[in-house]
Fold this protein.
Amino acid sequence: MKEKKSLTKNAFYLGFGTFIAKLLGAIYRVPLTNIIGGYGLGLYQMVFPVYCLLLDLSGAGLPSALSKIIASKSDSNEAIRYLRTSIKLYSIIGILLTLFMGIFSKSISNLQGDKNAFLSYLTLSPSIFLVCLISSFRGYFQGQLNMKPTAVSQILEQVVKLILGLTLCKIFMPNVVLAVASATFAISVSEVVALLFLYFVYKRKNENKLFLRKKGFEGAREIIKLSIPITLIGIVLPLSQVVDSFLIVNLLKKYTENATSLYGLYSGVALTVINLPVSICYGISTSLIPAVSGAKSSKDKEKSIKQGLILTFLLSMFAFIFCFFFSKDIIKILFRSLTEEQLVVSNRLLKICSSGILFLSLLQSINGILIGKGKTYSILTGMVFGAIVKVILNIILLKNPKINIFGAGVSLIACYFFSVLINLIIVIRKDKINAVKEFTNRQN
């Protein structure tokens, strides 16, 4: 039985949980940077673009797809059948990609320009399989309009990662490579804890229903059909970030010895800060999918869309202005171990990237609306164009020593801006076409 909560309440639960999780993640980087230093942070950040890409391939679109499907179902037993099928299906995918990441860890790290990252790939690889299972449960709960389990599990992940990661890092230092690998191992452990929590929440509500239904892959076709375009959408930006992890370090190495450290400041400091407020708006976009998909009338659907966009704009605009004008203070509070020179670079990077809060938040919500409406493939146009713009600008700007790492920030904003612009045009255009069709049908 779906819980009757408004879009605002659902967005608050998930947004608050995601924000706390991101905040803990940002706080984690402060003592982590103190322990492993700038080079260690750069090494730590290098593994995540590839890791995130594999996560997206393994089923990052699953929670959204499953929540959309379940939101449209009234039978709770049917929802459980979809959950069971998704667990079976994506476990297989997760195991294969976990093996891929482990087997090719050395090759990937060598291509990225620093072979010391390979051990971190090995210790992080089990997370891919675990996240597949986690995604199934989160999609089930979100489709039931219950965002609390997802929010709490995200916080649990960060708490375990923070405590265990820092403890292990202190044990293995001054060996930076082992320390960083132990930090990524802590992530794998945190996923185990989150999975156990979600499973016990499910069991408490449904007793043994998960294992009482007949065997097979019922609903697999519907899940895959919807998951594929959502997964493709989710892959675009992480894929461009993977390209970044190869491009940025290798291009900067041509004229500076601090390439890895500069990449760490960009991805580990500036992007970490802007992702904090974006995480709040993530709750809105995720809540929009079942709200739009499960709406009983076109009036309810349009009301949810309007509320979602207005709330996204107001929150993200406030956060953008705050981060732009108080960038130096934010970095000093969160990253006290940075040197004066690193503070100057990070401050400038955050100012450049701060408008990304507005554009990325709007992009999330617009995409959530389109997914809820079943217009998943339409989203790819803007996303792909924005990613191509980012890669091209990175190649052009990062070659210039005067622009240096700041070119990555400019490229990022251009990517988000064009993605939002194109997808917004698609939404408006499709709504106009639908309105004309509806008017014509009435006349006939």
Remarks:
- The two ends are 40 Å apart (CA to CA).
- Residues 7-443 form one domain.
- The chain has 16 helices and no strands.
